[in-house]
Design a protein that fits this description.
Length: 471
Amino acid sequence: MERTVDGLNARGIGCGDRVAIVLPNGPEMASAFVSIAAGATTAPLNPAYRQPEFEFYLEDLRAKTLLLAAGDDSPARAAAAALGIPVLEIRTEDRWPAGVFDFVTAPTGAIARRRGIAGPDDVALVLHTSGTTSRPKIVPLIHSNVCATAENIRQTLRLEPADRCLNVMPLFHIHGLMACVLSTLHTGGSVYCAPGFNALKVFGWIEDADPTWYSAVPTMHQAILARASRNAGIVERLRLRFIRSSSAALPARVMAELEELFGAPVVEAYAMTEAAHQMTCNPLPPAPRKPGTVGIAAGPDVSVMDAAGNHRAPGEEGEIVIRGPNVTPGYENNEAANREAFTAGWFRTGDQGFRDGDGYFTITGRLKEIINRGGEKISPREVDEVLMDHPAVQQVVTFAMPHPKLGEEVAAAVVLREGAEAGPGEVRDFAAERLAGFKVPRRVVILDEIPKGPTGKLRRIGLAEQLGLGG
């Protein structure tokens, strides 16, 4: 860690400076996140982004440098060049221990504004969160936020130095960064960083890692279940103490099948970026786990509030709200969003639900229009803006469509300009050239007119049902 911070300082990067990280999943990505955050601000980005997306995020984040693997021809490199942002390259060698890397880029001689190790109020991590506006919000998380979350997860899962986590989550996402990497390192345990998730390879990784637990989104759990019968020998030798699920609703059937297959309890957690991940979690045995709920408060204070700011009684529905040392101080440069998100010190999650008499929370719906595609959060208006650049498109509304495995999928309704011609495939291809794959609409419906609400506004909620799109 000190070596990385010294290396950053020698290249003019110090506390408060933002380092955009575009690395593939693996131990170097994990160690880069932790070690760079110790002396600068990390901004992990999805390697699947296209150049226009990288340009937006790099500029919006005010990145001082972009971290890439030596020789990587990622479109992020061209995006950085277009913005005049220097690239900082790292390398690793097979003979080095996992996670060890060295800087390739020579020291610049520039002097960092603030050298050395960051403090508890310095920003460790910045991530964008999708919202219902066209511009994603920037969520800064200070060191005290992420350290609080690491301790919350340690306590909730009763992690010990002997535990080993298998990480299959992307490390540009709060789930993998906090639940799998930081909580494990905080505990003194070990983490096996897989190169992403691959249903065909996951049992090989499980056998190699010999983990005591893993955390994933429901679609990954379902893929593991689908291939379990081909890997019965590996399953029998496992020593899993528990399995964790987060980032999307876990079907009760999947939970039961996982527990039957692995002979280990499955705990579902409720989390979000603004909370540095974990907010609630079903507890481990001997405490009861309630399928269909997201468990009890697991670190921060959690309550249910009505629109006027009054706290609701058990059984009464309202908006889930949280407060605690893990919660972001507020969105960056977005006072309007902060006024809307915070009420008397409580952060409004945008999720609707209730708690029962035992303190277990159930999420009943989302107040926001974010599309939750298997744990990936997508801003509909971001997709709208891309599709509106198509010369044949006059009007577009992107919305969530039900999907049997992902929960939700991206769909778009399009009205063409008079006299223009374009088919659904052409519109999808146009989007695929400008958006990461998970944001590209799987269904494009060409309409003469998009249904509107009583005030004339285009409505996303309920549009899939209205158009007869069941998945």
